[in-house]
Amino acid sequence: MSNTFKITCPSCKKEFDADSAFNLHFEKAKKEAGNKAEMDAAKKYKSQIESAAKEIEKAKKDAAKNAEIDAAKKYKSQIESAAKEIEKAKKDAAKNAEMDAAKKYKSQIESAAKEIEKAKKDAAKNAEIDAAKKYKSQIESAAKEIEIAKKETEIKAKKIATEELKELERKKDAEILQMKKREEITNDRLKKRTEEMTSLMKNKNVELQGEVQEENLQDFLQKKFPEDHLEPIKKGERGGDCILTINYKEKKNIAKIYFESKDTTTFNEKWADKLLNDMKEKGIANGIIVASHTCLPADIDKYTSYVERHGNSITIIPMEFKIIHVVVNRIRSILILKARENNDHEIPEIMKKCWANLNSPNFQLPIKSMISEIRTMEKIFKQERTAFERSSANKEKTINGVKTNLVKIVTSFTRSVGDIFPDDLLEHKDDQFIE
After folding, report:
1. Quick one: which of 344, 342, 315 has its CA closest to 330?
2. In this predicted model, what pLDDT tens digit does every residue of 309-320 receive, in sequence order?
3. Cα 217 from Cα 261, distance rounded (Å)
4. Which of 22, 163, 241, 359 has the smallest number of Cβ neighbours within 10 A?
5. What does the alpha-carbon distance between residue 351 and residue 357 come to, in Å, rounded to a whole number?
6. Please, is 88 exposed, middle or buried when counting C-beta atoms within 10 Å of its C-beta (0-12, 13-18, 19+)?
7. Where are the beta strands (DSSP E) in 14-62?
8. Distance between CA 311 and CA 313 in Å, rounded?
């Protein structure tokens, strides 16, 4: 059994020999306990220490601020007084310096001013003398020029007066001329009005002549063709003058002839177009325009004394009863013959209807009208083509003239100056500008 004395540590329950080891262990445990107590205290009082530090810092700042404010309040009046004293001292010093300078240089400035004034007077006097010497001849010349100008002004005034007198005379002549022109205008207006009245009366006479010719035509038709029925077109209604319905023996309404009477000075081709449209509306295949000798078309046959339009659908004849009788009788005979031929042939009913339709105005007149319109369009197209060819020829001639002039310009320049132009001057991109 060991004689060493064992001691158990009350803290860690460790046993130690009763020697230096216990002391070392005790010191270590003490130190660790102190560190632990210090850490616990630091943790415990950390927030309080930080709050105290913040309070101290705030107190320092507040104390400094209060001290600054107190100092500012304490020394504000002294600073302001000092500033006022300094400003006053500056002003007094400047004023005293100015006064000293004024006293010091006053006499010198007054002397200098007197010298300057004297120099000015002397200079002005000398300048006046020099100017008088220098400009004496010019002044004399100006006086002479003024005298000449006065004389010229008098001459011009006399001339102007003479011109004004001439102007007055010219205005007087112009007024006389104006009056003559007004008289001429008045006379022209009266003449024009007289011509209008004469033309109106002439047109009225022509209208009366037309009515007379129309009545004579109707009387003649009724007299020469009593078996037929004549239907006059009422005044104001659209259409021609009368319609003759052909009757033959016991057969009624075989065919019809549309009549239009004209008694004017010149023939108008639109009459035939209008009569054709009226015939279409009435379903009449044949028409006759009876015109006075003053308005017959230029292409009328001198031997037969008639001319036809729209595929022989319209016949134009003069107002002569013999010719009217011959032409109407011829057309009437042809229409009666056609009607007899249609009745004599033994043909199927459907063929009769086809034949009747082919010979009816409703079928023939539109075709004839279209043929007439086609001929008119051909004539217009021919005129437009001729105009286009003429215009193209003029444009081509102009272009060739421009080309020729351009070549002449370049050639003349080359002869005078030399061949300085590039080779492709007369070329335009891919095409040759001058061939």
Report:
1. 315
2. 888 889 999 999
3. 8
4. 163
5. 10
6. exposed
7. 15-17
8. 5
> pTM for the whole thing?
0.38
38-52, 106-120, 157-171, 310-324, range with the lowest pLDDT: 38-52
**281-307 pLDDT, tens per residue?**
888 889 999 998 888 998 988 888 899
Q: Are 326 and 385 within one domain?
A: no
Backbone angles phi, psi at 256, to 5 degrees: -135, 150
User: What digits encode the pLDDT tens for the residues 311-349?
Assistant: 888 999 999 999 999 999 999 998 888 877 665 555 566
d(CA 64, CA 53) in angstroms, rounded, equals 16
* pLDDT value of residue 384: 85
Give the span between the Cα atoms of 25 and 36, in whole angstroms. 16
- At 7 the three-state DSSP class reads strand
Whether 285 and 323 have beta carbons less than 8 Å apart is answered as no
The stretch 175-200 carries a mean pLDDT of 71
Residue 243 pairs in a beta bridge with: 231, 258
CA angle 41, 42, 48 (to 5 degrees): 100
Task: Quote the CA–CA distance of 287 and 215 in Å, as a whole number.
Answer: 18
The reply to whether 246 and 325 lie within a common domain is: yes
The answer as to whether 366 is a domain residue is yes
Range of the domain at 400: 362-435
Unique residue bearing structure tokens 């037309």: 210
Q: Which residue has the higher pLDDT, 54 or 32?
A: 54
pLDDT at 183 over 50: yes
Shared domain for 260 and 309, answered yes or no, is yes
Domain boundary among 99, 115, 143: 99
Q: How confident is the model over 146-157, as pLDDT tens digits?
A: 678 777 777 876
Q: What is the DSSP string of 260-328?
A: EEE-SSS--THHHHHHHHHHHHHT-SEEEEEE-GGG--TT--TTT--EEETTTTEEEEES-HHHHHHHH
User: Where does a domain end: 99, 114, 135?
Assistant: 99
Specify if 106 maps to a domain. Answer: no
Residue 179 maps to a domain: no
**Greatest extent of the chain over all pairs of C-alpha atoms, in Å:** 194
Decide: 290 and 319 in contact? Cβ < 8 Å: yes
Token pair for 126:
């000398």
**318 vs 257: CA distance, rounded Å:** 17
Q: What residues does 308 pair with on adjacent strands?
A: 315
Whether residue 288 is found in the same domain as residue 395: no
What is the pLDDT, as a whole number, of residue 435?
Answer: 46
